[in-house]
């Protein structure tokens, strides 16, 4: 088990190094000099040179790469070209919106998907199964920004239970902040929950046809007990894979939802930074997202081994 | 008085009748064997007794267990009977246990489910059970996961689960079919001992008459969902009233008429000091690579027209060796020559001289191709495959040679039975007129009557085509009837070799002796036909 985790940790580090090199190179290749962009078309040559020196753009690529990476490890992401403020501060502010939003959405999605998937699997071929499958088909088909707007119309404008947008800072009370994230989280969770229920259903149906389920039934376990004691844990592997992928998507893919609800999240930050050619922000946020995705995959890998003892002895 | 009485049991799935009015009784402490070929309804009978038949199956008739009709019980009452009063053992020990739970857990939960015992006293009981089924040290085994045990050991765990609560009846559905002969003998002996000790009535379901004859007090022969004959073992074998019983018995002991191969000195295949090894998955990070030697320093040759058998149990290296001969497996050391050409460098023209027939007639064909496409595939081994003339007539001929008709070439593989598919596999091997055909457990998956027909076909083709065979099997009876010379393989090495008759009748190696002794034998008393 320890060897397994160690090997995954090594592969995590290697992935991060490779990702940082790729991101750095891509941003380097992108045309346009940030200094001249920031100063506008009428800027003097020497002003640009001075800004370049200030931003560290005049150094060679290798040392810039290393100072970028070592800075990030220390939590220093550099200074934004446009706002002239530390990137780390900008990220810090926004990650406390994006990360809770992603986790919240994931939680909702899992809480809907598990019961729905399990129910559909036990009702296979019956009306209950058809209902769940129909609903998930609907959930996958609906664009989430549209669903978000419908939620706003119903729950914010008509019923006035939630506000239509914006984010209440955490200092003002955790519950209020969570409340402001609720509609966006539901909008994000809907398609994810639909996909996850389908995966849960098919994984469970497959597991229920395994020989060891028949053995468990022959021991005297009822149909429900068999699901809880024997089938569920075996069906979890594909479900975990999807949850891992979904978290990555929710972290990075919330741009549209953040726009709809006026949330100051990472997605919006990247979007703005790209349009303003604020490359240092783009670089840092993308790196951060990569870090989050790779870490989640690492956690999923470890979860596999917790679920399935056959993987523990592997390296 | 009987403990179980099945009366007029019928079972239908859709409009198809699976069981048709079957009746039998099982006495206290008796062993009843139900035997028949695949599809005869034996397994469905077993599942019906515990009401675990598929939910879309329609069941009629009565099943009395201790004077109570099981078919009238609800799910809650049935759960109290299953595992506690009626234990079950299934065929495939590899998949019958939950891979994510320890074997201790899986035995213990049966005890806890049916009794008020706490975990600790259930634990002590679990240890006792593990000892009883011969898994020691039990304190060690109790913590193991199924994948850490061999097939035989897993089957012991499954047996442990079945007998844990000293049930009145144990139903064992093909408990040893997936196991090697030596393991099979041990498991059967264990089963026999346990049911005797606990005075359990056993229903033993198997396709193998030889296994049955040695174990059962009473035998029921099933065919197409009907019990055609049921009698005390001795009487059944002596009288064989029903023609199907007779044909089953004849097919089980079937041997083919094959003239001795013509002595030839032309070497067709030579294998010199061949070693094949696999890299094992590392168990510690940064540790050195470990290797498993599957085939270790093996040498033998096959002359033109010779029929050689290769016997061994699973894991002995026979499949690796087969793949190496076919050029599908890298050789670590040594040389394999086909007609003086190194197989690893051989041209297609040399390679076409060796063809193979695999074990599984269901998995070895692409389901989307027509039979004609499947059969003519080996022609692509010939350089200008398009120049081969009369492909169509060659397909027709070879299909007729293997006992099918030329009209079959336009069908798809799912339209054929297992035996027919194996004929198609043989046709595919023969169409290119090879010199050597390798049969890798080619008749093991077949029912006895079909197996007998395929063996006849193989024998007949050996003579017609003048073929050499490398016949790989764990079944000594088959090896005896087909081959002239045989090799016995264990742990990657050839441990005995010689004329088949001599090896099987006067084995020198102790392992060969064990293998021959472990093989179940049909009763030898003469039947009066």
Which helices and strands occur, and which strands form pairs?
The complex is a heterodimer of chains A (315) and B (529).
Chain A: H1 2-29, H2 34-39, H3 45-55, H4 61-74, H5 87-122, H6 127-141, H7 144-158, H8 174-208, H9 211-219, H10 223-252, H11 255-260, H12 266-275, H13 279-307
Helix pairs in contact in A: 1-13, 5-6, 5-8, 5-10, 6-8, 7-8, 8-10, 9-10, 10-13, 12-13
Chain B: E1 2-13, E2 16-27, E3 31-36, H1 42-49, E4 57-65, E5 68-69, H2 75-81, E6 86-89, H3 103-114, H4 119-132, H5 138-141, H6 151-163, E7 169-173, H7 181-197, E8 201-206, H8 209-215, E9 218-223, E10 226-232, H9 233-239, H10 243-252, E11 267-279, E12 291-303, E13 307-311, H11 318-325, E14 333-338, E15 341-342, H12 348-351, E16 354-357, H13 371-376, H14 391-401, H15 418-430, E17 436-440, H16 448-465, E18 468-473, H17 476-482, E19 485-490, E20 493-499, H18 500-505, H19 510-518
Parallel strand pairs in B: 3-8, 3-9, 6-7, 7-8, 13-18, 13-19, 16-17, 17-18
Antiparallel strand pairs in B: 1-2, 1-4, 4-5, 9-10, 11-12, 11-14, 14-15, 19-20
Architecture overview:
The complex is a heterodimer of chains A (315) and B (529). Chain A is mostly helical. Helices cover 77% and strands 0% of the residues of chain A. Chain A has a domain at 94-311: MetI-like fold (Orthogonal Bundle), CATH 1.10.3720.10. The radius of gyration of chain A is 24 Å and the shape is globular. Chain A starts with a helix and ends in an 8-residue tail after the last helix. Chain B has 2 domains: 2-252, P-loop containing nucleotide triphosphate hydrolases (Rossmann fold, 3-Layer(aba) Sandwich), CATH 3.40.50; 267-353 and 434-518, P-loop containing nucleotide triphosphate hydrolases (Rossmann fold), CATH 3.40.50. Chain B is globular and about 75 Å long. Chain B starts with a strand and ends in an 11-residue tail after the last helix. The A-B interface holds A 3, 6-7, 210-212, 214-223, 229-230, 233-234, 307-310, 313-315 and B 50, 52, 75-76, 79-84, 87-88, 90, 92, 95-101, 109-110, 113-114, 145, 147, 158, 161-162, 281-285.
């Amino acid at each position: 088990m320890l060897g397994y985790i160690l090997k995954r940790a090594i592969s995590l580090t290697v992935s991060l190094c490779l990702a940082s090199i790729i991101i750095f190179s891509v941003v380097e290749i992108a045309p346009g000099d940030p200094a001249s962009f920031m100063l506008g078309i009428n800027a003097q040559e020497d002003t640009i040179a001075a800004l370049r020196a200030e931003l560290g753009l005049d150094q060679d690529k290798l040392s810039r790469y290393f100072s970028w990476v070592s800075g990030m490890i220390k939590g220093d992401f550099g200074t934004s070209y446009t706002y002239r403020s530390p990137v780390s501060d900008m990220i810090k502010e926004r990650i406390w919106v994006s990360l809770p939003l992603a986790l919240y959405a994931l939680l909702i999605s899992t809480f809907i998907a598990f019961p729905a998937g399990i129910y559909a699997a036990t009702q296979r071929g019956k009306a209950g199964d058809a209902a769940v499958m129909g609903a998930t088909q609907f959930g996958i088909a609906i664009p989430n920004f549209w669903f978000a707007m419908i939620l706003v119309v119903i729950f914010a404008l008509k019923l006035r239970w939630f506000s239509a947008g914006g984010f209440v800072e955490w200092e003002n009370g955790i519950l209020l902040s969570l409340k402001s994230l609720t509609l966006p989280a539901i909008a994000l969770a809907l398609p994810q929950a639909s996909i996850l229920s389908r995966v849960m259903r098919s994984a469970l149906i497959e597991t229920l046809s395994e020989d060891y389920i028949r053995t468990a039934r022959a021991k005297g376990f009822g149909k429900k007990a068999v699901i809880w004691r024997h089938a569920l844990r075996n069906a979890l592997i594909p479900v975990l894979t999807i949850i891992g992928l979904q978290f990555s998507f929710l972290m990075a893919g919330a741009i549209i939802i953040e726009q709809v609800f006026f949330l100051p999240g990472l997605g919006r930050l990247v979007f703005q930074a790209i349009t303003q050619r604020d490359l240092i922000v783009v670089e840092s946020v993308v790196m951060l997202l990569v870090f989050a995705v790779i870490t989640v995959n690492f956690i999923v890998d470890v979860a596999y081994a917790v679920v399935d003892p056959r993987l523990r002895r592997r390296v | 008085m009987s403990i179980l009485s099945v009366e007029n049991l019928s079972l239908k799935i859709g409009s198809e009748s699976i069981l048709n009015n079957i009746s039998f009784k099982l006495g206290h402490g008796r062993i009843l064997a139900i035997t028949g070929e695949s599809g005869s309804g034996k397994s469905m009978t077993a599942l019906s007794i515990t009401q675990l038949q598929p939910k879309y199956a329609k069941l009629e008739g009565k099943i009395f267990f201790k004077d109570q009709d099981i078919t009238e019980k609800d799910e809650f009452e049935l759960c109290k009977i299953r595992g506690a009063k009626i234990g079950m053992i299934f065929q495939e020990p590899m998949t019958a246990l939950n891979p994510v739970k320890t074997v201790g857990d899986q035995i213990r939960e049966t005890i806890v489910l049916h009794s008020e015992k706490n975990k600790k006293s259930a634990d002590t009981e679990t240890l006792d059970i593990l000892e009883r089924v011969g898994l020691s040290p039990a304190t060690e085994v109790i913590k193991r996961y199924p994948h850490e045990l061999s097939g035989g050991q897993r089957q012991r765990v499954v047996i442990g689960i079945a007998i844990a609560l000293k049930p009145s009846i144990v139903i064992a559905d093909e408990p040893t079919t997936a196991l090697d002969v030596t393991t099979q003998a041990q498991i059967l002996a264990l089963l026999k001992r346990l049911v005797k000790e606990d005075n359990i009535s056993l229903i033993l379901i198997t396709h193998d008459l030889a296994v049955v004859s040695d174990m059962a007090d009473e035998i029921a022969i099933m065919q197409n969902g009907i019990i055609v004959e049921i009698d005390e073992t001795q009487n059944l074998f002596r009288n064989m009233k029903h023609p199907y019983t007779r044909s089953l018995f004849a097919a089980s002991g079937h041997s083919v008429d094959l003239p001795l191969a013509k002595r030839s000195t032309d070497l067709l295949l030579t294998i010199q000091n061949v070693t094949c090894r696999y890299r094992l998955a590392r168990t510690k990070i940064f540790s050195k690579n470990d290797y498993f030697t599957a085939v270790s320093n093996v040498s033998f040759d096959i002359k033109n027209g010779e029929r050689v058998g290769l016997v061994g149990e699973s894991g002995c290296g026979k499949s690796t060796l087969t793949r190496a001969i076919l050029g599908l497996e890298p050789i670590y050391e040594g040389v394999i020559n086909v007609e003086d050409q190194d197989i690893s460098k051989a041209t297609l023209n040399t390679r076409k001289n060796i063809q193979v027939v695999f074990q599984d007639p269901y998995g070895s064909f692409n389901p989307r191709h027509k039979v004609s496409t499947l059969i003519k595939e080996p022609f692509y081994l010939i350089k200008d495959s398009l120049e081969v003339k009369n492909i169509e007539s060659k397909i027709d001929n070879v299909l007729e040679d293997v006992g099918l008709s030329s009209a079959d070439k336009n069908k798809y593989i799912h339209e054929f039975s297992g035996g027919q598919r194996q004929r198609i596999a043989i046709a595919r091997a023969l169409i290119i007129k090879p010199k050597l055909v390798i049969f890798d457990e080619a008749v093991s998956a077949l029912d006895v009557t079909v197996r007998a027909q395929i063996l006849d076909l193989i024998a007949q083709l050996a003579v017609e085509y003048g073929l050499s065979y490398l016949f790989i099997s764990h079944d000594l009876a088959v090896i005896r009837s087909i081959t002239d010379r045989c090799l016995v393989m264990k742990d990657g090495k050839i441990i005995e070799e010689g004329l088949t008759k001599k090896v099987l009748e006067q084995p020198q190696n102790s392992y060969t002796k064990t293998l021959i002794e472990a093989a179940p034998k049909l009763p030898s008393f003469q039947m009066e036909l």
